[in-house]
C-alpha cells in the first residue's frame, strides 16, 4: 500500500500494443503524472504498486524501499539469489531484484488471475529475468515449496487493503521459515495504525518461529499517529541491523528501526497468533491513502 499523488487515468493500450486486456473490476491502472513510463496499480481504492518501466530501481513507495533494503543485504552486492514473492501486484520488488541481482531465480504467486494478466500485458517485465508468476493461494503455495530453497521470502499480500488472516498466523510463519535458507530473510509488509495491536501481535508471532527480527516504519506510524506500513524482517541468524538502520536513515522519508530490546518492548505482552484465532489485518481509515 502506498500514498497517492497527482496522476492521470490510463487511456489505452501500452505502446506497441494493438489491444489490451480489460482492467479487472475494482482495479485501476493510472499513469504517474510525474514520471514518464511509470504507473500506479490501484485495487479497491488502495494503491498497491508503482512501477517505472524504464528504471526498475526507482521505488516510489517508502515501504517498498525498506523491503529492498533487506533484499540488498541478504547476499553480497550483485550476487544472484532465489526469491519468493507472496502477492505479485505489479512485481515492483521482483523487477528490482532482477535488475540489481542479474541471474536471480524468482517466483511469485497471486490469487487474482485477471490482475496478473493485466500486469503481464500492460506492464511487461524484462523477459530475460528468471521470473515466473503463478496463480494460487499464497498459503497453499508456500506450503508446497521445498525446505531451505529461498534466500528471500517477501509476504506482501492484501485483499484490497487487508492481509488475510491465514497469512498472519504462526503456522504461516513456520511455513515461510521452513523454506528459508539459514542466512535468508523473511520480509513481511504489515498494515496497521493507532494502537498497533496487529503489528505488535505480528512481531510476537514471528518471534515464536524465527529468533532474529527487526521492524522499520515511519515515526508517525510507530507512534500510532497515522495508518501505514511497517516492514518486518526476520531470519534464522542475526540480521545486519546496523546496515538496515543506516539505509533506513538515508531514505528520503524518515524511518525508524526497532530491534533487540526496543522491539521486545514494542511486542511486550502479546501472544503469538494461531490459525484458530487469526483475523484479517485492520482496515485503514477513510482517506488513509
Topology:
Blueprint: E1 7-9, E2 27-32, E3 38-43, E4 46-52, H1 62-73, E5 82-86, H2 92-100, E6 105-110, H3 113-122, E7 130-135, H4 138-143, E8 150-155, H5 170-179, E9 180-192, H6 197-207, E10 212-217, H7 219-222, E11 228-235, H8 241-250, E12 256-259, H9 260-266
Parallel strand pairs: 5-6, 5-8, 6-7, 8-9
Antiparallel strand pairs: 1-2, 2-3, 3-4, 9-11, 10-11, 10-12
Which structural traits does this protein have?
single chain; 289 residues; alpha/beta; Rossmann fold; 9 helices; 12 strands
- Briefly note the CATH topology name: Rossmann fold
The CATH architecture assignment turns out to be: 3-Layer(aba) Sandwich
Sketch the major β-sheet. Answer: 8 strands, mixed
- Say which CATH homologous superfamily is assigned: Vaccinia Virus protein VP39
| Terminal residue distance | 8 Å
**Mean pLDDT across every amino acid position:** 92
What's the tally of helices? 9
Beta-strand proportion:
25-35%
Main β-sheet, spatial strand arrangement:
7-6-5-8-9-11-10-12
- Global shape: globular
Radius of gyration over alpha carbons? 18 Å
Helicity level: 25-40%
CATH class descriptor name:
Alpha Beta
In total, the number of strands is: 12
Element-by-element helix/strand order:
EEEEHEHEHEHEHEHEHEHEH
Q: Structural class of the secondary structure composition?
A: alpha/beta
Q: How many domain modules?
A: 1
- Contiguous low-pLDDT stretches (5 residues minimum) are 11-18
